[in-house]
Specification:
Length: 244
């Protein structure tokens, strides 16, 4: 009797067999976008403007693109260090995976996550599960090849910037302590101005634009100098570090 031979499938075929089955999306008259809005600090929540600003920006984008949009706002006050511990985002991602929506849209990438691994993972998921990740400030859209490339680059440099700022801040504080400086003095910056900056940045306004508006209105800085993009960025990073 002739022995039966074991035939091993090619590697490419075995990889295809391990892929998740495609989800059949229900027929919709227009694409459905899940608009994710979030603020990370109590100060921003109490300011009230940030969530409303993000909502208005996303609704305007959806109208321009011909999408229906559903706003997801259940994670207010939760940090964006990573995507764990955010129930509203978890539910939104499950709906996208199930084919119940076509896009996850945010005013800025850091509204979703500041983690490179999280962002890369979401980008991969969006491609495999056939939904789009769209971030307006960075002009990201993972439904395009350029968008998929840019989202990785932007996330890497965002994490690099935070790391460099953290290193410089720690080195500066250590030097000040050696010189006998005492920390913890009350900030001279009006809390309302600080809240406004955080709210506008969370809504997708750039640091340069915020600085120009404050300078044009004659709003004083903490030390009486000029408003610059770097000054605004420092205040935003300080607020994020405090909220984390």
């Amino acid at each position: 009797m002739e022995a039966t031979q074991n035939v091993v499938a090619p590697l490419s075929a075995r990889r295809r067999n391990r892929r998740k089955p495609r989800v059949t999306k229900p027929a919709r008259p227009r694409p459905l976008a899940l608009g994710y809005i979030r603020v990370s600090s109590t100060e921003q929540i109490e300011a009230g403007a940030s969530l409303d600003s993000q909502r208005a920006i996303l609704e305007s984008k959806a109208e321009a693109m011909g999408w229906d949009i559903e706003i997801i706002d259940g994670d207010a006050g939760i940090s964006a260090k990573d995507i764990t511990g955010r129930p509203a985002l978890t539910i939104a991602l499950a709906r996208l995976a199930a084919g119940d929506a076509d896009y996850l849209v945010a005013a800025a990438l850091d509204r979703i996550s500041r983690s490179v691994s999280d962002v890369s993972g979401l980008m991969t998921r969006s491609v495999e599960e056939e939904w789009g990740l769209v971030c307006l400030r960075e002009s990201i859209d993972t439904s395009t090849a350029m968008g998929r490339a840019f989202v990785q680059i932007a996330a890497v440099f965002a994490e690099l910037e935070r790391g460099l700022v953290s290193e410089r801040t720690k080195a500066g504080m250590a030097q000040k302590k050696l010189e006998g400086s005492v920390f913890g003095k009350p900030s001279k910056l009006d809390p309302a101005v600080r809240a406004r900056i955080n709210a506008q940045y969370a809504a997708g306004v750039t640091c340069t634009q915020i600085a120009r508006e404050l300078a044009a209105e004659g709003v004083p800085t903490a030390h009486g100098g000029q408003w610059r993009a770097g000054t605004v960025r420092y205040l935003v990073l300080a607020a994020d570090a405090k909220a984390a």
